[in-house]
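ok so I'm stuck.
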Amino acid sequence: MSTMGRGLLLIAASTLAGCIYIDGPKEHETSSWTVADAVTHLEVDNEVGRIILQEASGTEIDVRVESEWRRNAPEVDWDVSGKTLWIEGRCPGSGSCSADITIDIPALDSITLITDVGDMRSDSLVAETIEASTDVGDIDLHLNKTPALIDATAEVGGIFLEVPGGAYDLDLDADVGRAKVSGDVEQSANAASSVFAKTDVGDIEIFGY
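replied:
not stuck anymore, here's the structure
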């Protein structure tokens, strides 16, 4: 190896070692809490990490947070204002971090989900109005009851909505990708239930069961 080659290798190794020293090892933490307040609206704004919604066995709402970080741990705050449960996850300072938020919820009037980077998923959801928006991530929601409105948008990510069979007013827009409707879904501009789904890069599928 030439002198120049060895010099470049030493510089790269020193830079890498400095990065490891600055960031440090990855750390993990799990936290949870229960919300006993009677709420009708859920709003979750998570900067980096997944949002997972599950059906609650009772009327209380259980929240679990799985956090990972280097240097600075993510901060997850929550509050109840009137009938609204508000949860916010963010990454302070420098270094990588993420917070996966899992929420066991009963039937609600409305749900609003927002992520900068992170997927959204639900295997069992009951709400009249669902709004879901992500910059980078997939939206995958299964609804147990026909909603009045679903509004799902992703800049980069796919959208998959599984809804009870019936008539829906559909407005689907996939700029780079395909939009597909399958199963027991009837498209009708006069339907009482509306689905708006838009992604800049990704596929959209609406499946009726």
